[in-house]
TrEMBL record:
Role noted for this protein: Catalyzes the reversible isomerization-deamination of glucosamine 6-phosphate (GlcN6P) to form fructose 6-phosphate (Fru6P) and ammonium ion.
Protein name in UniProt: Glucosamine-6-phosphate deaminase
Enzyme Commission code: 3.5.99.6
Organism, scientific name: Peribacillus huizhouensis
Pathway terms, separated by semicolons: Amino-sugar metabolism; N-acetylneuraminate degradation; D-fructose 6-phosphate from N-acetylneuraminate: step 5/5
Principal EC category: hydrolase
Superkingdom of origin organism: Bacteria
Domain Glucosamine/galactosamine-6-phosphate isomerase per the UniProt entry, residue ranges: 11-230
Length: 242
């Protein structure tokens, strides 16, 4: 794993945006794996600003998101469909039909999981996957204990994840308790991965990722086995790493 140390959230977002923009320019048909949550918002803001200013085009780009809550439709403001539309897709020239997220309201959710993995494989896989990390080491919504061999699957969210994500909902009771997420094996198929880590709340997780063993009890640790991972971390996130 390569580690890029930056000062703060702004610098992390800018660094990530510089890399993504460069890659989109070099390979206009790039297939991007995208994350939601607080961490990539600054990255997406910068991609939008660059698109407006420098006209970097996403017309041929395809995107695949990591996860979606079970039971939230794409029009629900707390769904990741809605987040992606409003945080990025509506502001750049990517074709809506080239953006993909798991369908958390699919009638047959098991079939949906199989379909999602097959679709990514059939399209040639993800060139660059953007990841955040949970305080408990989750990637996607693969919580501690998830098999490293897992494919796209339905998962129960850990209580700490429900609590962390409650900030987006009116009350903690509204946070779905299940999600569909790309599995660990699905994520590891990506040709390149950028993991963004910012803030003191992630410092323990980052320390464990860097210093700890590879174990299913800490899902992100599998990234050590990937050939092409770059961590971009700010000072607060790095505060416990020596
Ligand atoms: C989001 C995702 C999650 C988040 C993680 C960190 O699509 O897959 O793994 O990246 O929960 O969330 P934030 O960035 O809100 O701290």
């Amino acid at each position: 794993m390569k580690l890029i140390q930056v000062k703060d959230y702004q610098e992390m977002s800018q660094k990530a945006a510089d890399i993504v923009i460069e890659k989109v320019k070099t390979n206009p048909q790039i297939q991007l794996g995208l994350a939601t949550g607080g961490t990539p918002e600054g990255l997406y803001d910068r991609l939008i600003a660059d698109h407006k200013e420098n006209h970097t085009s996403y017309e041929q780009v395809k995107s695949f998101n990591l996860d979606e809550y079970i039971g939230l439709s794409s029009t629900n403001p707390n769904s990741y469909h809605y987040y992606m539309a409003h945080t990025l897709f509506n502001h750049i020239d990517i074709n809506q039909e080239d953006t993909n997220l798991p369908n958390g309201t699919a009638e047959n959710i098991q079939e949906e999981c199989v379909r999602y993995d097959e679709m990514i494989d059939k399209m040639g896989g993800i060139d660059l996957q953007i990841l955040g990390i949970g305080q408990n080491g989750h990637i996607g919504f693969n919580e501690p204990g998830t098999s490293f061999a897992s494919k796209t699957q339905v998962v129960d969210l850990a209580q700490s994840t429900i609590e962390a994500n409650a900030r987006y909902f009116n009350s903690i009771d509204e946070v779905p308790t299940q999600a569909v997420t790309m599995g660990i094996a699905s994520i590891m198929k990506s040709k390149e991965i950028i993991l963004l880590v910012s803030g003191v709340a992630k410092s323990e997780a980052l320390k464990q990722l860097i210093d700890g063993d590879i174990t299913e009890e800490f899902p992100a640790s599998i990234l050590k086995n990937h050939q092409n991972v770059t961590i971009i971390a700010d000072q607060d996130a790095l505060s416990k790493v020596h």
